[in-house]
Amino acid sequence: MAMAIYKNELVKRQFYGHLKNAKGFSLKTIDCFEKAIWLWEDFTGKADFANFNKTKAEEFKEWLKGKKKVRSEGEVSLSFCYDNLRHLKTFFEWLSKQSGYKSKINQTVIDYLNLTMGEIRTATQPRNGECPALEDIKSVIEHITGKSEVEMRDKALISLTFLTGARIAAISSLSMQCFDRKNLTIHQDPTWGVRTKNSKNITTAIVPFSYKEPLNYFLEWFDYLEKDKKFQPTDPIFPATKRENGADNLSYYSSGKVEPTFWKNTTSPRKIFEKRFVQAGIKYYHPHTFRHLLVEEISKLPLTEEQKKAFSQNLGHENTGTTFGSYGYGKIREEKQIEIIRNINFEGQQREVKYLASEEEMERIIQKAINHKQ
Questions:
Q1: CB 263 within 8 A of CB 238
Q2: Positive or negative, the Cα torsion across 202, 208, 214, 219?
């Protein structure tokens, strides 16, 4: 058993290196593969990967679907099973091509790690996730007075997220050099330290909403940092709050000011969103829902295919199907769907239909036209 564990660890290390250096996957994505392999090892008792076969694959699927959620009596979701099986398939497909495993792992057997077609549809169907209404965003932004540096920063932070739909990891890691004031664009450049999904370089134009105030709030903040605070190009657009020592250095308190230090992760900016929603008396929506709101608003417009493509790229998507379809962006909310169906004017459509000529009338009309032509 010890030899099998050593062998497994060695090949896993090679696989993770392949994902990072050959496929260019981020550490976060590699972590998903690692968790899927852990599940397999948990099920098999860390048996040699070379023992993979049809029976083991089928038994693992049933074991996975019956697994309980952490700190809950409920079973894991089909989407959880689908994602882990997908990652596990990729691992065994790679392994089946490696020396020492080619003759032991049958590639056709790897397909037994699939769910049924019905289960896959359930696991991958877009979720009708809620997102804030435009009026909610207005209330949250306008409720922040903007008197202190921290309030100015928070107001600008929520405003830029609304205007771009950029992910919070990217927004919180933007440096001053990332903003092109003349063209009103944000350059989400990983080489400048911006934490984008899969380290993708994204150029994002600020969306010209009719609600103009958020752009002014962001520009005022940026100019304040540049002119008054003398921030340099590599300093953060959204810096961390400055902490001051309390009496006898026994405690720390917020000074209401900021210092040119980046947040270490997205925890602090997420807390800012939650805090500002609560203060405005609005139900809290996490930052990613702003992307859904943006697509929902854009989807109401009669866009050309070129405009759809440009907007999709603005969000960092490679195709419009991702933006408006497969992941649920732009999906009509259920209540709106019901409202639209209920308001269809069937009577009006019937009135239009009754003016259509019958077959006999059409024959008379055609014959009359022929005789007239003759």
A1: yes
A2: positive
Beta bridge partners of residue 258, listed in sequence order: 241
Cα 218 to Cα 146: distance, rounded to the nearest angstrom: 11
Which residues does residue 245 pair with via DSSP β-bridges, in sequence order? 252
Beta strands (DSSP E) in the chain are: 179-180, 185-188, 202-205, 241-245, 252-258
The set of long-range contacts for 51-59, using a CB threshold of 8 Å and a minimum separation of 24, is 52/92, 52/95, 52/104, 52/105, 52/109, 52/110, 53/106, 53/109, 54/106, 54/109, 54/112, 57/109, 57/110, 57/112, 57/113, 58/112
Q: What is the pLDDT of residues 15-67, one digit of tens each?
A: 999 999 988 888 888 999 999 999 999 999 999 999 999 999 999 999 999 98
Q: What is the pTM of this model?
A: 0.66
In tens, the pLDDT along 235-287 reads 999 999 987 655 444 445 566 899 999 999 999 999 999 999 999 999 999 99
| Phi, psi (deg, nearest 5) at residue 185 | -125, 150
DSSP state of 168: H
